[in-house]
Design a protein that fits this description.
The protein is mainly α and about 375 residues long. The protein is about 60% helix and about 10% strand.
Amino acid sequence: MIKKFRKKISRKANRQAKKIRELVPDSVVETAASYNPLAPDPAPKEAGPVPQITTETIAEHREQVLSGARKYIYPLQHSKHKIIYITTSIVAAAIIGLAVYCSIGLYRLYQYNTFIYRITQVVPFPIARVGNSFVDYENYLFELRHYVHYYQSQLQLNFSGEGQQQLINFRRQALQDSINNTFIKILAAKNGVSVSGKEINARISEVREQNRLGSNNKVFSDVLRDYWGWSVNDFKRALQEQILSEKVVAKLDKADTARASAALAQLKAGADFQALAKQVSDDSATKANGGDYGFSITKSNPNVPPQVIEALFNLKAGQTSGIINAGQTLEIVQVIQNDGTNVTARHISFNLQPVSVYINAIKKQYAVHEYVHF
């Protein structure tokens, strides 16, 4: 019975060994069979000669590395050139498109929106030519936009429908103003007339002190924006053009300037102010009563030019001013009474020629070409 049990176990063990043998690869079996744990370790193999590092070997290695990288570098260079080409093409197309849009907007549709105006401040599109001088479209839009803003914001004028003709009139007036300003600059250059920043600031101070444009900086800025759509710099620009025109006329109107100088000389020699006013003053409303204004003048009086008011409040009773350029007239004033708040006074006025007289005189010398037709 014991023998029978042993045979049974032996057969079972052989079957399991056979199964394990089938799972092990033949190469592993062969290696295991050849391995003798009692044999000494084999002698280590001798290493080959170590290569020396030289300039030539470094160059060869460098070339191997670069040759492997070139397949990545060349596509990148190609992409870079392609990006530059595409970017340049897009920029060129945008510039051409903007130029076409502006040309149509300015010369066909006569647009005056803020975007177009800002473009003309950067790019000098011409609207007319006076002799060899171009009139910038920006100058025309500067004039037109303050007309439009005032009538839209203050008078609620609608330029569509029946108001369309009014807009056309504004366009023509703005174009003529910008052309005239170019002629005034030509006359000023010929006669050595200029306007300094000090003169502009002095004129602003005169207006501000009389509270005509606000008593503080914020109110001043708000008035300019609300009434004309101007910034302070825009207002200074308009003042510069106005003062330049006044100074050009005063310089060229030699006859009336001589009359004013002669009257002042007589007053300094002791002539009676009232009697002289009756003789030489051009103000028909005050001439008969010896130049007396006929009303008390305050600093905010809208009927007296700010330059004259500035002079009046700097004089004491009985004092006489010099010649004051009030824009359209030359004035000599004499204070009767001044209490610091109200002034009573008399004046002698000399009407200056309008600037158009001198512009028309040189128009024959400078051909005018307009590039728009309203």
